[in-house]
Amino acid sequence: MTGNHLAIIVLAAGQGTRMRSRLPKVLHPIGGRPLVGHVLTTATRLGADHIEVVVRHERDQVVAALEKDYPTAVFIDQDDVPGTGRAVQVAVDALPADFDGDVLVLSGDCPLADADTLGSFLDAHRAAQAEATLMTAVVEDPTGYGRVIRDADGGVDRVVEQKDATTEEAAVSEINAGMYVFRVSTLRKYLPSVGVDNAQGEMYLTDVPGLLRRDGSRVAASVVSDVTVTYGVNDRAQLAEVGRLLNRRIVRRWQLEGVTVIDPATTWIDDDATLAPDVTILPNTHILRATTIAEGAIIGPDTTLVDCEVGEDAIVRRTDATLAVIGAEATVGPFSFLRPGTVLGARGKIGAYVETKNAEIGEGSKVPHLSYVGDATIGRGVNLGASTITANYDDVNKHRTVVEDEVHTGSHTTLVAPVRLGAGAKTGAGAVVRKDVPAGSLAMSVAPQRNIEGWVEKNRAGTGAADAAARTRVAE
Ligand code: UD1
Ligand code: CA
Questions:
Q1: How far is Cα 280 from Cα 272, in angstroms, rounded to an integer?
Q2: Residue of 220, 238, 148 whose CA lies nearest to 182
Q3: What span, in angstroms and rounded, lies between the C-alpha atoms of 51 and 44?
Q4: How many domains does the chain have?
Q5: Any idea what the CATH number is for the domain that residue 279 is in?
Q6: What CATH code is carried by the domain that includes residue 111?
Q7: Largest separation between any pair of C-alpha atoms in the chain
Q8: What is the pLDDT of residues 186-230, one digit of tens each?
Q9: Do 279 and 213 sit in the same domain of this protein?
């Protein structure tokens, strides 16, 4: 069975020393996903019969980060023989003995090669009927990459790693992108001949093309025109650059789907986010993880949404929200902090300097200014006056506050949970509500006010306040 059978091997065993990081290189995230996650997402789209991920450095951490999202991937442990050649060899050895198709090798640190690019690459390999096809690119600065050395006829002769290259070889500007298609029989035949006699003492996968040529076999090259698809991440500067390119691609995709993005350079959208047509994104806005935004919503400026759901025509300004649901036509911000479990109903409002958590706020209800609403169920048509606070924590346990429909609280009301305000109830300004309030009642808890006349002039003589008071008295 040859035909179009395909195995994909993703190399992810290296340490990534140049990152200088505790985190394995391939787990550094861009666009809301680890670098190697992008490679696996693309691999999954290509519809392979086998997807293998070669791991070694921090293997448990790498496996744990990927196994749930990529259940069809099989993790293969590399032994202590180093190098990309060995990595591919252990993966090929783990394939079923009767597998007889093509093997696409990808690097866990090259996240920009999309399914279209790799699909064309596979087509090129099959059309060329070569034993192996390399993806190559002609770049301005080939530093760090393996160089593709061509023979007199222009065919691929071999690949030379930078560290093993002569000055003349190093001057070649065609680089090995680190993505290859091989016939599996080719790998089975040639990998055992790959040695470690090189500057890095590693088994180089890049020795295989030279060995093939020595036997008179054909090695094809597929030169990509968009060099960015070959960009790899070896250090943090490249991490930022590749992250920016990925983001630019995601932003552009949504723009073509009908989303207005005022400033693509300061708009960051994760790969998992979904935006409807006629959404408008204002500058400095981060739409992260699985956030979904419905038609006509306006988000930003200066807003971060993580795993949020925003309804049609909602407006969310200068807001930080995580795991929150914002209803249709609701308004949020400026300077609002929505923590997990916030659910704001349609046409509701969460205003300036308001923090919410585990709070359901019903349709048309408003929390306009300076409030904390936590562990609460707020009905419809409620207005929580400025600085209304749910005191949900007694130092040991969290308790719930229930506010029924059409309740209005006075400014600076403290709702000491557990407590319930019945439908249509009201509270006076400054009320500290410790007991349930029956429907339709007014709750007051502040002591009646006493004015002690002349106190300031008597006790604060000579101050501006006393003088002002004295002048007022004379004027009367
Ligand atoms: C490799 C290529 C180089 C190419 C470049 C493109 C080799 C010898 N060199 O160099 O020609 O231009 O990619 O980006 O292949 N890995 C393993 N096991 C190992 C070593 C590495 O799984 O023992 C994995 C790494 O995790 C990484 C990938 O292989 O995902 C590439 O390794 P890296 O060390 O980054 O290779 P480069 O030096 O970039
Ligand atoms: Ca690399």
A1: 18
A2: 220
A3: 8
A4: 2
A5: 2.160.10.10
A6: 3.90.550.10
A7: 113
A8: 999 999 999 999 999 999 999 999 999 999 999 999 999 999 999
A9: no
Mean pLDDT of the chain: 96
Q: Which protein residue's CA is at the shortest distance from atom 25 of ligand 1? A: 14
Q: Give the distance (Å) from ligand 2 centre to CA of residue 244.
A: 18
> What is the residue whose two structure tokens read 């300061």?
266
Closest-CA residue to 143 (of 163, 116, 115, 113): 163
Protein residue whose Cα sits closest to atom 6 of ligand 1: 178
Question: Are residues 92 and 9 in contact, defined by beta-carbon separation less than 8 angstroms?
Answer: yes
Does some domain include residue 362? yes
| CA atoms of 286 and 261, how far apart (whole Å) | 12
Statement to judge: residues 222 and 283 lie in one domain: no
Contact 290, 309 (CB under 8 A): no
Mean pLDDT, residues 395-422 taken together: 97
Q: What is the residue with the minimal CA distance to atom 11 of ligand 1?
A: 146
Q: Are residues 265 and 205 in the same domain?
A: no
d(CA 44, CA 38): 10
Residues 340 and 209 in one domain: no
Range of the domain at 393: 258-443
Q: Are 184 and 105 spatial neighbours (Cβ–Cβ below 8 Å)? A: no
Residue 233 CA, chain-centre distance (Å), reads: 17
Q: Is residue 398 located within the same domain as residue 332?
A: yes
Q: Is residue 348 part of a domain?
A: yes
Percent of the chain with pLDDT over 90: 97
396 and 356 in one domain? yes
Tell how far the Cα of 142 is from the centroid of ligand 1, in angstroms.
15
User: Following DSSP, what letter does each residue of 397-444 receive, concatenated?
Assistant: -B--EEE-TT-EEPTT-EEESSEEE-TT-EE-TT-EE-S-B-TT-EE-
Residue 9's nearest CA partner among 95, 71, 113, 111 is 95
Would you please indicate which residues are annotated as catalytic (active-site) residues? 369
pLDDT tops 90 at residue 180: yes
Handedness of CA 143, 148, 150, 155 (dihedral sign): negative
Decide: helix, strand or coil at residue 132. strand
| Same domain assignment for residues 101 and 171 | yes
Give yes or no for residue 160 CB within 6 A of ligand 1: no
Is residue 463, in this structure, part of any structural domain at all? no
Q: Which residues pair with 366 in a beta bridge?
A: 349, 383
- Are 225 and 287 in a shared domain? no
pLDDT in tens, 416-459: 999 999 999 999 999 999 999 999 999 999 889 999 999 999 99
- Whether the ω angle into residue 301 lies within 30 degrees of 0, i.e. cis, is yes
For the segment 285-290, the average pLDDT, to the nearest whole number, is 98
Q: What residues are neighbours of ligand 2 (ion), with CB under 5 Å?
A: 109, 232, 234
Task: Please check whether residue 437 lies inside any domain of the structure.
Answer: yes
pLDDT at 179 over 80: yes
